[in-house]
Amino acid sequence: MDDASLFRTAADALAGDGWCMLTELLTPAQTRALADECMSLYAARQLAPARVVGAAHAATELRGDRTQWFDPAAASPPQRAFVARLDALRMALNRELMLGLVKCEAHYAVYPPGARYARHLDRLRDSDARVVSAVFYLNEGWQEADGGALRLYLEDGAHRDIHPHAGTLLLFLSARFEHEVLPATRERLSIACWMRQRPLDAAGEDVPA
Ligand code: OGA
Ligand code: MN
């Protein structure tokens, strides 16, 4: 599928169901370069325990992943390739849906075996800045028996389990879908991203932790 069709399909799905999956955003080689970089950073202990606002004590029970934010000023070549594709998608969504998405923020995340992220909504501190959530998965050879699905809670009370296969991008409207990450039996790598409708404001709202 060419980019115009791919992005239009995504926009139609977001306007309709509010979520969709894309498997053609990056090539397998680009995905592998991100997976290798994420694993190296993790092995070198460059990823830090994710913070949960207001839950300092039991934080790892709510959320056991380790993260590193992408720094636009120091992006590696694989990160630049990823961000360029995500920005192309963001601009297509702006054109098709008039969303006014001004930027993307992204972080690597590694969930060690057994780690989870309890059911939550991707909106921070009463801010409506995050409009579209995008999670890109980096795990080659993932089996359903490995666990680690993202469970997306639909508005009719049903849910969908999305497995974190390398190359899958899950997109959903941040305000609409609660979701959780189920524990896995192996390390689970992803890039979590948000398309924002305003830049970071001067008061420091939503400052990446
Ligand atoms: C998040 C999140 C999902 C995933 O970081 O907010 O929900 O599948 N991540 O990694
Ligand atoms: Mn989330």
CATH homology superfamily: q2cbj1_9rhob like domain
| Strand fraction | 25-35%
CATH class: Mainly Beta
Name the ligand types: N-oxalylglycine, manganese (II) ion
The major β-sheet equals: 7 strands, antiparallel
CATH overall fold name: Jelly Rolls
Order of helices and strands: HEHEHEHEEEEEEEE
Explain how this protein is built.
The structure is a single chain. The protein has 209 residues and is α+β, with helices and mostly antiparallel strands. The protein has helices at 3-15, 28-43, 59-62, 77-97, and strands spanning 19-22, 48-49, 66-69, 103-111, 117-120, 130-137, 150-153, 159-162, 169-173, 179-181, 188-196. It has a seven-stranded antiparallel sheet with strand order 1-9-6-11-4-3-2. A four-stranded antiparallel sheet has the order 5-10-7-8. The model has no long low-confidence stretch (mean pLDDT 92). The protein binds N-oxalylglycine and manganese (II) ion (MN). N-oxalylglycine is lined by residues 109, 117, 122, 135, 150, 179, 181, 190, 192. N-oxalylglycine (OGA) binds next to β10 and β11.
